[in-house]
Amino acid sequence: MIGGIPFDFGQNYKLGNGPWFVIEGDEYDTAFFDKGPKFLHYAPRMVILTSIEFDHADIYRDLEHVVESFRRLIALVPDDGLIIANGDDSIIWEEVKQAGCPVELYGFGNGNRWRVAQEAIQDGWTHVDILREGEPYAEVVTPLYGRHNISNLLSTVVLANALEIPLPQLKKALRSFQGVKRRQEVIGKQNGVLILDDFAHHPTAVRETVKAVKKHYSGRLIAVFEPRSNSSRRNIFQAQYAGAFEGADQVMIPEPPLMAMIPPEDRFSSEGLVNDLKHRGTAATYFEHTELLLEHLIETVQPGDVVLFMSNGGFDNLPRRLFAGRGDDYRLLRTDNSTKIFFAQRRPSETKNKGFTG
C-alpha cells in the first residue's frame, strides 16, 4: 500500500498471497489529535530508508526535529530485522550507525555494499548494472528513468535479495513495472508537444525531476511549477528553489493558492523566485493566476517542446487542459474561474459542415 496509484494496479494497494505486507512510511503527522509521524504506528521488521531531509514546515521545526522522528523509526526495527539504507545520504549514513539490527547500504557511491555501476538508456529502456560487494550481481532493465528512480529501484533489489525472491522473477517484475501516476506521467503528445505531470514540490524532488526529464527527452524543456504544499507556500525553501530548475529552458510559476492561510511574513514569493531564476540566467515568467499561464502556454509552445507540470495538487487540471488546447480539433477560448468551465470550438478551417462543440 502506497500513497500513489501504480499504473499496473489502478489503485494504491495490491492484495497478494505471501506473508509480507509492504507499506510506504510517512513522516507527516498522523491526525489532528496525533502530531507524531504515521510510521511510528507500524511495527516494521524491515525498513528501506531512501532520504532524510527537512520538509513539512507546518509540522517540523527544523531538520533535527525531522531526524528525531526517523531516529525513533530506526529504533523500532528488531535486532533480527533489517534496515536497507541509502548510503549516498549523509544523514541516513550517520543515523543507521546506531541501529541495533543489520544494515545494508545501497547507492551510487563506492562505499555502498550494493551499488549501481552503470546505467544507460537504450530504445527508451534504462539498463542498470548492479554490483554487490564490488562484484557483478545483475543487469536489470526498467522503463523508469532518473537518478532518484534508479536509486529507489536498487533498494528494492536489496530487499528482494533479503526475502529470497528469485532473481529472474525480480528482473521480470522490474521490467514490467510501469511506474506511478503523477510521477513523470506522460499525459500525451499533441502537435509535437509532449506533456508530463509530476507530483514534485520539495526543492530536491523538483531538482531531480527536472534533471531526469531533461536527460531523457530532447527538445526545449518548459518547467511549470505550482508552489502549493504547506511547505512550498512558505518562504522556508525560497532560496533553495532557485537552484532546483537547472536544466530547464523556461520556467513558469503562478501565484501560489491559499496564501491567506500563511502569515504574511512567512509567505513564499513566486515573483521573487522568478527574479532569482532570471539572475541565474534562466528564462522565467510569473503569472498572477493559472488561467493566464495556460493561455500563454497554448499560444507559445512549439513542436518539439517538453512541458513538465509539477505540483502536489490538481494544478487546476492544467496538464490535461493544455493537452486538449493543443489538439488538432479544439482550442481553448476562455475559462470561467468561478465554474471552472472551459469552452472550445472547431478550428476555423474545420468548422464547415461540422458545427460547433462546447
Q: What report would you give on this structure?
A:
This protein has nine helices and 16 strands. It is an alpha/beta fold. Residues 328-358 have low confidence and may be disordered.
Question: How do the strands and helices of this protein lay out in sequence?
Answer:
Layout lengths: L28 E3 L2 E4 L8 E4 L13 H14 L5 E5 L3 H6 L7 E5 L6 E9 L2 E8 L2 E8 L4 H16 L4 H10 L8 E6 L2 E6 L4 H14 L4 E5 L12 H4 L8 E5 L15 H10 L3 E5 L2 H11 L5 E5 L7 H8 L4 E7 L4 E6 L12
Parallel strand pairs: 3-4, 4-5, 5-6, 10-14, 11-12, 11-14, 12-13
Antiparallel strand pairs: 1-2, 6-7, 7-8, 9-10, 15-16
Brief rundown of the structure:
This protein has 358 residues and is of the alpha/beta class.
Task: Give structural attributes.
alpha/beta; 6-stranded mixed beta sheet; 26% helix; disordered C terminus
Give the biggest beta sheet: 6 strands, mixed
Extended strand count? 16
End-to-end distance: 40 Å
Helix proportion of residues, in percent? 25-40%
Helical segment tally? 9
**Class by alpha and beta content:** alpha/beta
Give the topology string: H per helix, E per strand: EEEHEHEEEEHHEEHEHEHEHEHEE
